């Protein structure tokens, strides 16, 4: 037997079933897949927010918050393709996904110092974060343009959006207040300058319930700091709130003599007037234009100055310049200074429409023939402001019917020239007076009066001497008489006289009586009952002689 | 009944007797009763003969507070003063002393002419004699004392000299009358001292 025959040969049998051990990795893989699915299914959507700058924003750190509650986290910050901004990608929590609407707003909250105060101080320590303002739209959206700062009006705030138009020199800023009787009822949200129209348009928001104050007749005007107006009406001082004094603002109201108008519900256009008085200035649309030609200085007369008739404003001065074709040399002494005015028929009780203008023009022409003239009147002595007063007079300065195509209202002499004329007349009258003869007569009369007064003075002096002598004589006699009487009186009481002796006797008697009473008084003082009960022991102590 | 009425009458009479008291008599004393005034003729003669005599005005006389009253005073022990109720001066004491002193001085000096001060300071007097009495009374140890100070002033009130006096006399009998006599004698002794002082002033 060989060795090979002795060794048993193993019979290899292939396995027919998978080992149980494989269950472990399979289970692990399944758990892993489930975990990945769970993770992916719990992730919120990614949103891309485009900002101008990524200042303060860091990937993996900066949070997205709403009312200080975290709703997401910035995952990446990248420059956009045009290099004009940054694209911030943030993941919003799944359960906050409903906040992502088309009008949802994002802005970065940083420490900020502005007109409205200091905000975002908390981010000094916690770092900047992105604030989310949820929209009200139903359409979902995942790419947004981030705001540079906090929106003036959060989306969904009830109120009214209006557009204001201004051609004034003072511009408003985003966030400037809109006031009603000093109450902050809205804000300027957006500013747009139209270069073609050279006007500024402001989108403003009036918050509820103040949006009910906006009607078709509502007028807006600027309130900016302190306003001092020195017009012909005097000095007017007006100031707004502290905020408007710093940054400006707009206020509105319906003028008192206007109807309230219809309530505005949609976006409407309104004009911003430079001040409240400007509303009244431009409230009437139709006016007649006239020229007044003045020989005097028109210093103090400014465009906007009133044209009055018996104190009623019927128009306004609109031009005081000399850019007319008829004026070739202003420095010529015969050149008259033109002043263009408007006369508004509506201010005289007529209707404010175009059809009434020819009728009013004819009536004014008829009045001019009756002597209606225009004159310069000083309205305010302090500021020297002037206005045009229409009045009836006879002194016609010129007889032009029209000037540069406008009808002319003849003018009167100015107040100063009238005063000069009256002074001249007065001086002529004074010159005609026979002053020399009057002065001579007066001088003669005065000399006579002086002589008379001197004589009267002498007479008075003599009379005074006489009175003095008489008085002195009477006085001496009176004194002598009084002295004699006094002498008689003293003689009656002098030593040796009967009266004196009687007085002496009386005094002596009284003295003796008192001396007699003294022991008795002493005794009564010592023993009050001694009047009834005698006291033999109450004797004086007497001196004793030496033994 | 009659007996009761009788008893009542007796009782009333006894009560009236009980109320009855003997009337105490007040006695008045004067220092000047014994001195005789010179007649007017004598005074006139003296005035004409001695027109150049130095005139000495006596007064004012100032008494201690307890002497400025009408009752005579007796000193009991060292500090007690008793004023008599029934023994009184007949006139103010300073007046009586002035009268007596002027009499005494005039009687003892032929060189000076003494007169009482009449109201104001006499501008015509050569000298003024001003006196102040601290004591002028009897004591319980059988003595009278008269003590004080006097001053001699010139016409212009300038002081020439000042002197104290202290005169005492023993009482040999009881009663105020004897004491008044001794006080009168004390004034006499005081006048002697004043004359001596005047002579001393005259010499100097």
How does this model look, in words?
- The complex is a heterodimer of chains A (547) and B (204).
- By secondary structure, chain A is α+β, with helices and mostly antiparallel strands.
- Chain A is built from nine helices and 26 strands.
- Chain B is built from four helices and eight strands.
- In chain B, strand 6 (127-139) and strand 7 form a beta hairpin.
- The longest helix of chain B is centred in the last third of the chain and has 28 residues, at 176-203.
- The A-B interface holds A 515-516, 518-519, 522-523, 532-536, 539-546 and B 18-22, 24, 26, 70-71, 74, 76, 82, 84-88, 138-140, 142, 144, 170-176, 178-179.
What's this model, at a glance?
The complex is a heterodimer of chains A (547) and B (204). Chain A is an alpha+beta fold and 547 residues long. Chain A is built from 9 helices and 26 strands.
Offer a few descriptive terms.
heterodimer, A: 547 residues, alpha+beta, 7-stranded mixed sheet, B: 204 residues, alpha/beta, 8-stranded mixed sheet, elongated
Structural class of chain B: alpha/beta
- State the helix count of chain A: 9
Low-confidence regions of chain B = none
User: Strand percentage of chain A, roughly?
Assistant: 25-35%
Structural class of chain A: alpha+beta
Multimerization state? heterodimer
Q: Average pLDDT of chain B, to the nearest integer?
A: 84
Write the layout of secondary structure elements.
The complex is a heterodimer of chains A (547) and B (204).
Chain A: H1 3-6, H2 23-42, E1 46-51, E2 63-66, E3 69-79, E4 86-92, E5 105-109, E6 112-114, E7 117-119, H3 123-126, E8 129-133, E9 143-145, E10 159-166, E11 177-180, E12 183-194, E13 199-207, E14 219-223, E15 226-231, E16 234-239, H4 242-247, E17 249-253, E18 269-273, H5 276-281, E19 288-294, E20 306-309, E21 312-319, E22 337-343, H6 357-369, E23 372-380, E24 385-392, E25 402-403, E26 406-407, H7 415-432, H8 435-493, H9 498-526
Parallel strand pairs in A: 1-9, 2-8, 10-18, 11-17, 14-18, 20-24
Antiparallel strand pairs in A: 1-4, 2-3, 3-4, 5-8, 6-7, 10-13, 11-12, 12-13, 14-17, 15-16, 19-22, 20-21, 21-22, 23-24, 25-26
Chain B: H1 2-19, E1 27-29, H2 40-49, E2 55-63, E3 71-76, E4 80-89, H3 93-108, E5 113-116, E6 127-139, E7 143-154, E8 159-170, H4 176-203
Parallel strand pairs in B: 1-4, 2-5, 2-6, 3-6
Antiparallel strand pairs in B: 3-4, 6-7, 7-8
Helix pairs in contact in B: 3-4
